[in-house]
Design a protein that fits this description.
Strand order of the largest sheet: 10-13-16-21-24-27-30-33-35-36
Family: Belongs to the transferase hexapeptide repeat family. LpxD subfamily.
Oligomer: single chain
Pfam families: Hexapep, LpxD
CATH superfamily of the largest domain: Hexapeptide repeat proteins
CATH topology of the largest domain: UDP N-Acetylglucosamine Acyltransferase, domain 1
Catalytic activity: a UDP-3-O-[(3R)-3-hydroxyacyl]-alpha-D-glucosamine + a (3R)-hydroxyacyl-[ACP] = a UDP-2-N,3-O-bis[(3R)-3-hydroxyacyl]-alpha-D-glucosamine + holo-[ACP] + H(+)
Protein name: UDP-3-O-acylglucosamine N-acyltransferase
CATH architecture of the largest domain: 3 Solenoid
Pathway: Bacterial outer membrane biogenesis; LPS lipid A biosynthesis
Distance between the termini: 76 Å
Number of strands: 36
Length: about 325
């Protein structure tokens, strides 16, 4: 695909400073871009990379306009990262789509399942009885949608996703385990994207619910009865234990864990590798292994922890001085 810079701005907006006839042949990072490429600067800390970039045109925010113009052509917008995302969608639309059947011959779809005529079902997928797949949804290869689970419209499930496996429920019985049958389902809303090999378990009684616009990365585990609110995003290897309730517009960093039966309010952001050990009812950014805390407080405490060894030695030295001055004082 080749596009004039002026045409790009006509399609996506923004203010072009430079040659509207410049031909853009592709998208690239600041480091790897060549004169035929469009790139973007999302944060001022990468300003040096902007100065050194060979990109033909760079998307920048208003506060970086002067630096970008000193380098060459630029498109100025309020949110360069969002603009770049829309540019990638524009380029993707030009990719040729394979002329293949909407349902791959190797897919197994139960006669009692409901698959919208516009949905795409990839190789080796399994859609079981009572399952429902909405309009415009795409299941990549090896996706399993278990019985009675529903997926809304325009969803994208990447290879290996499993929807509706049994939740992890067992009752102890004199040293053995008795299975608790999982009688609920999984209900997934519209415009949800689920990364490769992510698993969403069916509920024990009520459904596991993933609301509209949720984005899940690869290798995520969502336990039974979990509720994930609209437009929440989770990075790879995150885990959510059973019956947790996560509000809308939350983010969960890679490798982070939300323990069972907890509630995260709308707008809560959990840092990577953190463990949410208590409910968080106030929006904000939270970090920590144990216990989780407000991010700003956690950073101060973490800085103090790094000094504990030296502080301990200083305290011992002070105690020794005090003992010399007051011999009978107790160190307890």
């Amino acid at each position: 695909m080749v596009l004039r810079a002026g045409t790009l701005v006509e399609l996506l907006g923004g203010q072009l400073f430079g040659d509207p006839e410049r031909l853009i042949e592709g998208l690239a990072s600041l480091e790897s871009a060549q004169p035929q490429h469009l790139s973007f600067l999302s944060h001022p800390k990468y300003q040096q990379q902007l100065a050194n970039s060979r990109a033909g045109c760079v998307i920048v925010s208003p506060n970086m306009q002067a630096a970008a113009q000193a380098r060459g052509d630029c498109i100025v917008v309020e949110n360069p990262y969002l603009y770049f995302a829309r540019a990638t969608q524009l380029w993707k639309q030009q990719f040729p789509r394979p002329d293949t059947a909407l349902i791959h011959p190797s897919a197994v779809i139960d006669p009692q399942a409901s698959v919208h005529p516009s949905a795409r079902i990839g190789a080796l997928c399994v859609v079981e009885a009572g399952a429902s797949i909405g309009a415009g949804t795409v299941l990549k290869s090896r996706v399993t949608v278990s019985e009675n689970c529903s997926i809304g419209e325009r969803c994208l499930l990447h290879p290996g996703v499993v929807i509706g496996a049994d939740g992890f429920g067992f009752a102890p019985d004199n040293g053995t385990w008795v299975k608790i049958e999982q009688l609920g389902n999984v209900s997934i809303g519209n415009d949800v994207e689920i990364g490769a090999n992510t698993c969403i378990d069916r509920g024990a009684l009520q459904d596991t619910v993933i609301e509209d616009g949720v984005k899940l990365d690869n290798l995520i585990q969502i336990g039974h009865n979990v509720f994930v609110g609209a437009h929440t995003a989770m990075a790879g290897c995150a885990g959510v234990a059973g019956s947790a309730h996560i509000g809308a517009h939350c983010t969960v960093g890679g490798g982070a864990v939300v323990l069972g039966h907890l509630t995260l309010a709308e707008g809560v952001n959990i840092s990577a590798a953190s463990v949410a050990t208590r409910s968080i009812l106030k929006p904000g950014h939270y970090t920590g292994m144990f216990p989780i805390d407000d991010n700003a407080a956690w950073e101060k405490n973490a800085a103090s922890v790094k000094q504990l060894a030296s502080l301990r030695e200083r305290i011992r030295a002070l105690e020794a001085q005090v003992k010399r001055l007051i011999p009978n004082i107790s160190s307890d």
